[in-house]
């Protein structure tokens, strides 16, 4: 093999080797939507990333189901845009994942209120268990840059780490007060799909991987 191609080969193999070493499996191959179902027409694949298409909503989710797991991914919010999306946790494959699933872990710009001139309930901020538990704010990178996020689901507990800092660590079984007094009938689900719940904004995702804990 020509020596000048060796660094390129190692760069291609290293991510897969690292995934295998720590028990994570890629959910998105950067080329197509193999392993995904739902709102497949709402996203485009651009430079190895899933990019939500403007003015398209709905939930894109894994064909496989999971119980307890660690989910890792990177996301990028578009400048000057609310960046509204969400991670569907234990989604049953129908309905609004914020209510029909265990929860929707919110993805949204920390500048949402400045951009839209509309106020957020704290339980709608980035990283929050939507409508149930508020996450810590102010740890996003500037719009246009990639953020890293890790979500750990164990039983009824949810932990969110954004760019290396814990922004949410809660047990949803303890939640009794809901935003707008609207209950979340799916929050006790033990198993379901993982996905992204688009709300018309061009948010991008890449390096999506999962480690089942059960």
C-alpha Rg (nearest Å):
17 Å
Task: Report the CATH C-level class.
Answer: Mainly Beta
The largest pleated sheet is described as: 8 strands, antiparallel
CATH topology: Jelly Rolls
Number of helices: 3
What fraction strand?
A: 35-45%
Q: What would CATH call the homologous superfamily? A: Exo-inulinase, domain 1
End-to-end separation in angstroms reads 42 Å
- Helical fraction: 10-25%
Helix-and-strand structural type? mainly beta
CATH architecture label? Sandwich
Q: Write the H/E string, N to C.
A: HEEEEEEEHEHEEEEE
Shape: globular
State the total count of DSSP E strands.
Answer: 13
Number of structural domains = 1
The stretches of 5 or more residues where confidence is low (pLDDT under 50) are: 5-19
Mean pLDDT across every amino acid position: 92
Task: Give a structural overview.
It is a single chain. The protein is mostly beta strands. It has a single domain, classed as Exo-inulinase, domain 1 (Jelly Rolls). 12% of the residues lie in helices and 36% in strands. It has 3 helices and 13 strands. Strands 1, 3, 4, 6, 9, 10, 11 and 13 form an 8-stranded antiparallel beta sheet that branches. A 5-stranded antiparallel beta sheet has the order 2-5-12-7-8. A hairpin with a 2-residue loop joins β10 and β11. The longest helix is centred in the N-terminal third of the chain and has 17 residues. The chain is globular and about 40 Å long. The termini are far apart. About 7% of the residues have low confidence.
């Amino acid at each position: 093999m020509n020596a000048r191609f060796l660094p390129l080969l190692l760069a291609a193999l290293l991510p897969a080797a690292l995934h295998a070493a720590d028990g994570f499996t890629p959910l998105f191959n950067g080329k197509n939507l193999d392993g995904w179902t739902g709102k497949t027409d709402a996203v485009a694949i651009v430079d190895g990333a899933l990019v939500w298409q403007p003015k398209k909503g709905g939930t894109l989710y894994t064909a496989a189901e999971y119980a307890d797991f660690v989910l890792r991914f990177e996301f990028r919010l578009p400048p000057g845009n609310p960046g509204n999306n969400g991670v569907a946790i234990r989604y049953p494959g129908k309905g609004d994942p914020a209510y029909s699933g265990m929860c929707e872990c919110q993805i949204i710009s920390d500048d949402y209120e400045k951009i839209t001139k509309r106020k957020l309930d704290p339980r709608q901020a980035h990283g929050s268990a939507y409508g149930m538990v508020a996450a810590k704010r102010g740890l996003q990178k500037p719009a246009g840059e990639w953020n890293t996020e890790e979500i750990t689901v164990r039983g009824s507990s949810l932990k969110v780490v954004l760019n290396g800092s814990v922004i949410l660590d809660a047990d949803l079984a303890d939640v009794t007060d809901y935003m707008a007094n609207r209950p979340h009938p799916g929050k006790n689900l033990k198993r379901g799909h993982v996905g992204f719940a688009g709300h018309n904004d061009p948010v991008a995702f890449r390096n999506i991987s999962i480690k089942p804990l059960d």
